[in-house]
## 1
Amino acid sequence: MEKFFRLKERGSDVKTEVLAGVTTFLTMAYIIVVNPMILSKTGMDFSGVLFATVLVSAISSILMGIYANLPFALAPGMGINAFFTFTLVLGMKVPWQTALGAVFISGIVFILLSVTKVRTLIVDAVPGSLRYAVASGIGLFLALIGMAEVGFIKNGPGTVVAFGGFNVQTILFLVGLLLTSILVAKRVRGALIISIIVNSIIALIISYIGMNAGFLSRPIVEFPRSVVSLPRLDVFFKLDIKSALTIGMIGPWFTLLFTDMFDSISTFLGVAYVGNLLDEKGQPLNIDRALLVDAVGTTLSGLFGTSSATTYIESAAGVEEGGRTGLTAVVAGLLFLPFMFFSPILSLVPAVATSPVLFIVGVFMAQSFKNIDWKKMDEAIPAFTALFLIPLTYSITQGIVWGFLIYTLIKIFLGKFEDLSVTLLVIDVFAVIALILMF
C-alpha cells in the first residue's frame, strides 16, 4: 500500500488517509439523498436514481484513487443535476431517457478530449490569477452552501440575501461552527470528522428534547425507521442514445460537456492548490489521468441513470484533514457502497453537522486569495470577477467563464496579446456559445 500510493513521498500515512477519506465522504454524503430528490422530479424512480448515484460515486472515486492517485472524490454534480431536471427535462420537455443519452454522449466526448490532451491544454491556458481566484471563490461557495443549508443566510425582503435569524438550526450551526473552529485552531487531529460526529449527536439530543418540550415542530435528526433498503434498477441502462444524437440535442449535450468540464477543471485547480498537489510547473499532479477518470465518471452516469458525475469541491475537506494520495479517494468511494442497502443511516448526519465543516473548508481555500497581485488591475479585475460570481451565481462555471471573458477583453484592449494563448481564445469562443445556449 505504501509503495502503490506513495504515502511517505507525499508526507502521509494510512491512518491519515483513512481519516481524510471518511471526512470527504461525510461532507458529500448528502448527494446520496439530494440527487435522487432532484432527478425524481423528472419522473425517474427515486430509489433507482439513488442506486445509480451510489454506484457512480463509488466507482468513480475508487478509480480516481487507483488510477490517478489523487484524493479527489466524485459524484453526480450539484448544478448539473438542476440543469438536467429543470432545463433539459421539465423546461425543454426532453424525455429523461434522452437526457441520460445526452449525458452519455458528453462523457464520450470528454474521454476523446482527455485522450488527445486537449483538456490538459485547457488547464495550461488558465491564467495564474484566475486559478487563485477560482480556489478562493470555491471556498466562498462552500461557506455559502453551508450557511444556506441551515438557513443562516436566506433570501431577504428587498435584498438578495439576508441573515436568516435565530432558531434552533442556526443556533446549532453556530455551536457547531465554534466547536469546529476551536478544534481546528488547536490543530486537533481529525478535527473535521470529530466535529461532524459531535454535532450530529448534539442535534439528535436537541431533536429529542425539542419534540418532547414542544419547541420543535419536527426533529432536526432522528433515528431511521428502517436500516436496510434494497436497490432498484428502474433507471439502470435506460438511456436513449439514438434520440440524443439528433440535431436538436446538440445544444443540451454541449452545455452538459462545457459545464462539467469547467466544474472539474476549476475544482482540480482549487483543491490541488490547497493540498499543494502541484508539479514543478505549478500544475495539478497527474492532471491527465484525473481528467480521464472524470470523463469516465460522466459516461457511467448516463449508463447507470443519473446526471453527470464530477469531481467534488468537498474533496477539500479530506485534503485539509491530511489526505494527499489516492487512498483517500478509495476510502471515500468504498464508503458509498453500503448505502446501496443502508441509505437510511444517512439521516443521522444532518446539515447542521456538516455545514460548519463546509464553512471552515471555505476558510482554508480562501487562503489563495493572497497570491493574487491586486496592484495589477488587468489581473485583479478578472480574478475578482471570478471570485465574486462563483458564490453569488451559485455556479463555479459562471465564475470561471466570466473571469475568462473579462480577462481576455482587458488584455486585448491593453494590447497585451502575449498574455493570451490560442487555447484561451478558443475557450472564450465556447464560453460565449455556452452562455447563449444556457440563456
## 2
Amino acid sequence: MALTTRPLDATEIAQRAVKESRPVVVAVGGDGTLNEVVNGFFHNGAPIPTTSKLAMVPLGTGGDFRRTMRIPLDSKAAIQVISTGLVRRLDAGCVTYQDHDGSTGVRHFINIADAGYGGEVVHRVNRGSKRLGPATFTLTAFLTLMAWKNKPMTVAIDGVSHDLVAQQVVVANCQYFGGGMRMAPAASPTDGVFDVILIGNAGKLETIRGMGDIRNGKHLDQSNPKIQLVYGKRISIASPEKVRIDLDGEQPGFLPALFEIQPGAIEFITPR
C-alpha cells in the first residue's frame, strides 16, 4: 500500500507499478484519485505496455465513475470485487489542452470531461471544503450558476464543426458527473466512442428547472433545441474566451482542447 502526499503523487506511484506489471493497481479514493491512477497507465499520451489491471475502492466526494461501473460503496464489498470480479477493457480519453502556465498539457480521463460551466464548478469545488460530500457539488453548482455567463465555442466532432454559445460541452465516456448527475445516460466505456452533449445558450432559471431531469437522466428524452447529443471519437473545442476544462473532477487547465478516444486502453476489474 502507498499513501499519497501531494497532487499527482498517485500518478507516479501507479506508473511505477504499471511498468513493473504489478497484478492489480487499486485506486482507493474518489474520482480525482482514480484519475491520477489512470494517468499512471500512460506515458507521453500512449498506454504503457503492461499486464496490470486497474481496480477501485471508492471513497471521496463525487463517486461518479463507480455509479456507471456499479462498484459498491461498501469497502469490504468493493475489495471482494477485486478478487472475484470480471476484467473488462475500458476506453479512456486523451486530452491535449492549455495548462495553467500557458504551455500544452496532456492528460487522460476515464469518466467524463467537460468545458465551460462544469469546469468552473469543479474549480470552485476543489478550491473549497468538501465536508458536505456529494452535496458540495449541488451547492457549488448553484452558486457558480449565479455568476456564470455562457461562452462562444467552436466544437468539431470527427471533423463536423458546430458554432454555438454554450453553457458547457460534455465529453462522456461514462454516465455520471457532478456528484450523481446522469448527464450521459446511455454512455458506455466499452463502445469506442464518446457521447458528446452540447448544452447551448441555456438561462439560469431554465438550468435550475432542468437539474432534476439531468440527475435522473431524462433531459435527452425531451425535445430541447438547446441540448444536443452527438457521438464522436475526436472532439476539439475552442473559444475566444478563457474557458476551464474538467477531467474526472480535476481542473487541469483551459481551452483550446482536443479530446481523443483510446479504445480498450485499460483493463479494469468490475463486478460480475
